[in-house]
Amino acid sequence: MHEVAISTNSTQRYQQIIETAVDAFIAMDSNGVITDWNLQAEATFGWSRPEVFGKLFSDLIIPERYRNSHSESLQRLLATGEGQRIEITVLHRDAYEFPAELAISPIQCDGTCFFAAFVHDVTARKEAQQKLALKAEELARSNADLEVFAYVASHDLQEPLRMVASYTQLLARRYKGKLDAEADEFIGFAVDGAARMQQLIQDLLSYSRLTTRGKTPCFTLAEAACHTALDNLQESIKISKTLVSVGPLPAVLADATQLTQLFQNLIGNAIKYCSERTPEIHVGATSTASEWLFSVQDNGIGIEPQYFERIFQMFQRLHTRMEYSGTGIGLAICRRIVERHGGKIWLESEYGRGSTFLFSIPRAERTQK
Ligand code: ADP
What we know:
Layout: H1 2-20, E1 24-29, E2 34-37, H2 39-45, H3 49-52, H4 57-61, H5 67-80, E3 84-91, E4 97-109, E5 112-121, H6 123-175, H7 181-212, E6 218-221, H8 222-232, H9 234-240, E7 243-246, E8 251-254, H10 256-272, E9 280-287, E10 291-298, H11 330-340, E11 345-350, E12 354-362
Helix pairs in contact: 6-7, 7-11, 8-10, 10-11
């Protein structure tokens, strides 16, 4: 008597739990005949409980073309005794199909076997995934278009610009002092403007070549790349009497030319944006479990925190050309190089005391000798 009471209680509890489940719950016997069907199953499939009892699960909610393979997989589950979680297409009472996640397990109880199945409608998730994939595709396409545009525009603009630059220079050489002072000044502006435009277009071209001419990353000694950068900068290091210390730096998976360019832009800036103090620069690296963290530290003019993001954008500068030369593309190039290598670039700085530019490169195990 007592045992029956417990059993009735637990059956009630089981029913309550099943009724409040957010997923459709369906129980069926070993032949696939439905024996239980909760409220959510009614909402998901449109059939009421009395309508489905005694009907075959596959006849009711599996589209006809999948029924054979569905029956076979039920038999397989019975044979192995293992549960399964799959994505399938199911059928609503109103004859439309929708995607669902099905978790189904064969359960042994008192010598008989039945199936317990939870079904979750994933239409919304699928639609969101599709929309996201479409957006990503659109974005990739428009990025690629933009790159081609930047490359073609800068490449094709070079030729007519070369003409303008050389003829304005010729005018300057041939007619300087022969016209009036104002004409000399105007020609000077034209020469200067053309030269500046050439520099901007050159920079734009180098920026788009980072992807069009980028090489497949291979094991590269960062210390060697840094020393090549210092060699390229030796003239300005000598003139400014800059003190540089390096390393030790690790080997990383990188495009060696781009890694050199990255160091060169950062060290070049550290030399250029110096205060009245003798420039002192330290290049170092530390590691975490997943990446190498490189730093280029200077004792220069520093940067105010509100500009920490902006200076990495193309053609963004904090100074006029009179104060410091440049076109504002160096750090945009740095960011693109670092991102191509799967890392991030940022800075820490105290205005008036110096800056440290930091960039990360994921660690990679050596795969070639
Ligand atoms: P450019 O040097 O041609 O202006 P960058 O993209 O290399 O272009 O730098 C963008 C701006 O960031 C610079 O104009 C400068 O104001 C600031 N900057 C870059 N590096 C430093 C540095 N080490 N110290 C202080 N300011 C810097």
